[in-house]
Design goal:
heterodimer; A: mainly beta; four-stranded antiparallel sheet; globular; B: mainly beta; six-stranded mixed sheet
Chain lengths: ~110, ~110
């Protein structure tokens, strides 16, 4: 079956702009988590969605937001981009909330210039 | 506080040599432990996981890991490394979702 699909794979944006990233989980999975990966901070948890509701949120400013649709697809949005937002954004899907078996997408590489 | 430490930022081994990547954790309860691998520009792939039972866990691609509660360690091993194993390896502890804490990663270089 198809894996986790993240689009786009690469993105270049200018400071101050906003960006929307998309994640389609594995069919049947209802939980989607987002992570930011940078060389300096490693993998940091952003949010977790289950059944269209944000269940948990990491320690990120309000410029980072997300949502989940009824088909479990999820989007995350970053407004007023800063240079420090440049990172690989990873999405992981799992069947249930905080399921121990998570499957990661290939990520979206965001570069802010 | 819960944490994961991977003491080695990078390791270089010769192809065909054995490999051990170290992972130490701090977790209040009996942990769920994971090892993931990430190739350049790719997402994370689960190599193996430990929840309970046999402390020696077999994973994909010939990897295994041993849970040692007394040492709070979950080291990853492979008896013979292949050039395609060159990647970054992440140890993680937790219960999934926001409760999963990742280590900083160990980058593996394989020399011919």
């Amino acid at each position: 079956k198809a894996g986790v699909t993240q689009t786009p794979r690469y993105l270049i944006k200018t400071r101050g702009q906003q960006v929307t990233l998309s994640c389609s989980p594995i069919s049947g999975h209802r939980s989607v988590s987002w992570y930011q990966q940078t060389p300096g901070q490693g993998l940091q948890f952003l949010f977790e969605y289950f059944s269209e509701t944000q269940r948990n949120k990491g320690n990120f400013p309000g410029r980072f937001s997300g949502r989940q649709f009824s088909n479990s697809r999820s989007e995350m949005n970053v407004s007023t981009l800063e240079l420090g937002d440049s990172a690989l954004y990873l999405c992981a899907s799992s069947f249930g909330l905080q399921d121990t078996e998570a499957f990661f997408g290939q990520g979206t590489r965001l570069t802010v210039v | 506080a819960q944490s994961v430490t991977q003491p080695d930022i990078h390791i270089t081994v010769s192809e065909g040599a054995s490999l051990e990547l170290r992972c130490n954790y701090s977790y209040g309860a009996t942990p769920y432990l994971f090892w993931y691998v990430q190739s350049p520009g790719q997402g994370l792939q689960l190599l193996l996981k430990y929840f309970s039972g046999d402390t020696l866990v077999q994973g994909i691609k010939g990897f295994e890991a041993e849970f040692k509660r007394s040492q709070s360690s979950f080291n990853l091993r492979k008896p013979s490394v292949h050039w395609s194993d060159a990647a970054e390896y992440f140890c993680a502890v937790g219960a999934g979702g926001f409760k999963t804490i990742f280590g900083a990663g160990t980058r593996l270089f394989v020399k011919a």
